[in-house]
Amino acid sequence: MIDRSELKYDSNGLIPAIVIDDFTGDVLMMAYMNEESLGISIEKNLTCFYSRSRGELWLKGETSGNYQHIISITADCDRDTLLIRVRPDGPACHLGTKSCFEYPLYDNESETAFSYEGLMELIKGRKTDMKEGSYTSYLFEKGLDKILKKVGEESTEVIIAAKDSDKKETIYEIADLAYHVMVLMVEAGISLDDIRNELAARHVIDKKIKQEKMTT
Q1: What is the rounded distance in angstroms from the CA atom of residue 8 to the CA atom of residue 75?
Q2: Cα gap 33→84, rounded to integer Å
Q3: How crowded is residue 140: how many other Cβ atoms within 10 Å of its Cβ?
Q4: Reported pTM
Q5: Sign of the torsion angle spanned by Cα atoms 191, 186, 24, 153
Q6: CA proximity to 20, closest of 120, 80, 99
Q7: Which of the chain's ends, N or C, has fewer CB atoms near its CB within 10 Å?
Q8: Which residues on neighbouring strands pair with residue 21, listed in sequence order?
Q9: E strands along the chain, which residues?
C-alpha cells in the first residue's frame, strides 16, 4: 500500500478519479478529487468528489440515492490518477444511464470484444424482435418447456464431457450450457445483475465463515 502523501495533485489541488464497476469492469465515470474528498471517500467507503463547476465537495448518491460503495482505490504509476472500483447502487450518470460513457465514437468491428452483457442484449433482441432463421428466436417461439429441455440436455453433455476428462469438449459444452441458461434467464426475466448480486451475497457470507473459522 502506498501512502496518500505520495499522490500528485494538479495545480488546483485535484486528481482525476476513474470509477469502474467492480462486477463488470465497465468504466462508469470520471471525476476529480481533492485531499478532503479522498479522505471522506475512504472514511465512508463511498465516492466523494470535488465539483470544479460548483467549487464544492459532492458525495455521489447523496441526492439521487445512487451511492457508489468503494471496493478499492489504486493509484497509477505516476501517482497522479486514481482508479476506483465500486459497487454502484444505481446509474452513475446524471442522465440516468449506467455509465457516463454511452456514446460510441468509433468501433473496430473486427476487434469487438465479447461480453456477457453484449450477448444478453443480443438474446433479448431475438425475443422482442423475432428473426427468421435465428435459433434463439426459435427457442423463444417454442417456449419455456423447450428452453428447459435444452438446459437439461446441455447439462448432461457437460457431465459426460467432464467425466471423460476431455477439457476441450467440456469447455465447448459449458459454453453451450451458459448460452441456454442465458436464454432461460431472458425468458424468466432474470438479469445478469440479479445473478451477480446473489453471488456477491454468497461471497460475503463465505468470507465471514472463513474469518470465523480462523478465529476459533
Answers
A1: 10
A2: 11
A3: 20
A4: 0.64
A5: positive
A6: 99
A7: N
A8: 86
A9: 15-21, 27-33, 48-51, 56-59, 68-75, 82-88
